[in-house]
Design brief:
The chain is 63% helix and 9% strand. The protein has 315 residues and is mainly alpha-helical. The strands form 3 sheets. A 3-stranded antiparallel sheet has the order 5-7-6. The protein is globular, with a radius of gyration of 22 Å.
Length: 315
């Protein structure tokens, strides 16, 4: 087996799965189109499909969501990129070269988007949009929750193709084997080792899989994909039991925050809060879970009291 044969392989050795020739782009007339970008595009399209279906089910004007999605694309991508850059400024600033700095910041073809930044930008855009259109922000947020989840699910496939957003060394059932020669071929291995993304634990526990030297890691992007899929399925099952406007949005914020705060603990490429050692995404995720969860509980208690009062008055 030659280098050209195996450096594109991805293994799940403990599941007996070998995926061959997994590239990170396609070439059309000599122009490279990254699968990361394709995943984001497909995510937006499927998000629109799910959102409009939910809007129809709840007797909303679907044209509003078409307008919103068209307006949303650029702010979400900018927000996700700016959030990512904000916590990794040192990686993008090229001293004495403003042009290279700016080009590096706007180049998202190799990844570098943070979902929380996209969500924050989306919320701000939604608030402005709803005020101008004079529609209920919570109703829009409930409907958009379905689109957000499918967009995140599809978007995580971009991480798979880029061999990024993985976790620490593991030999567990779902361990993913990535050939070290993939990063050597990309010329990124030294930087990833220096940044701790490829950790000492990974390098000290490399495995020969089908004659290929691999690091075996937690596929955290897959964990998050599956978590979001379960959350989406739950919302679909629960939606006929909706109790108040804003419930789905709060469930999404609390559910995603809980899952992300747990999964983030496995990753080696987390955005950190300065030198504190605190993972930004864990901090934000826990905050989202606590705040949204508290609001949900408050609303459920309030509804229970109101229903009790109504029953008492009827008697």
């Amino acid at each position: 087996m030659t280098i050209s044969d195996y450096f594109r392989y991805i293994f799940f050795p403990n599941l007996g799965i070998t995926l061959k020739n997994i590239g990170d782009h396609i070439s059309i007339f000599g122009f490279e189109i990254k699968f990361y970008g394709i995943a984001i595009t497909v995510g937006f399209i499927l998000a629109y499909v799910l959102v409009t279906r939910e809007a129809k089910r709840t007797n909303q004007d679907t044209e509003i969501y078409l307008d919103f999605m068209l307006i949303l694309v650029i702010p979400v991508i900018l927000g996700a990129r700016l959030y990512y850059i904000l916590f990794r400024l040192d990686e993008y600033i090229v001293k004495g070269n403003l042009k290279e700095t700016l080009l590096g910041m706007i180049n998202i073809r190799n990844g570098g988007l943070a979902i929380y930044g996209g969500v924050i930008a989306g919320v701000l855009t939604g608030i402005i949009f709803c005020k101008k259109k004079k529609i209920n922000i919570w109703q829009l947020a409930d409907t958009a929750a379905f689109g957000l989840l499918i967009g995140q699910i599809i978007g995580r496939f971009g991480n798979f193709f880029n061999r990024e957003a993985f976790g620490e060394y593991t030999n567990s059932l779902f361990a993913m084997g990535i050939p070290l020669d993939y990063y050597r071929n990309e010329g990124s291995i030294n930087g990833l080792i220096a940044d701790g993304v490829i950790s000492d634990a990974m390098l000290n526990n490399t495995q020969m899989i089908n004659g290929v030297e691999c690091i075996t890691v937690h596929p955290t992007f897959l964990y998050e994909l599956m978590w979001n899929l379960m959350l989406l399925i739950f919302l679909y099952i629960y939606r006929k039991h909706k109790k108040f406007t804003g419930e789905f949005a709060l469930m999404y914020v609390a559910g995603y925050g809980l899952g992300r705060s747990i999964i983030e603990g496995f990753r080696t490429d987390s955005l950190m809060l300065g030198s504190t050692g605190i993972r930004i995404s864990q901090l934000v995720g826990i905050s989202c879970f606590v705040i949204a969860g508290a609001v949900l509980i408050y609303r459920y208690i309030k509804l229970a009291k109101e229903n009790k009062t109504v029953i008492t008055e009827d008697k």
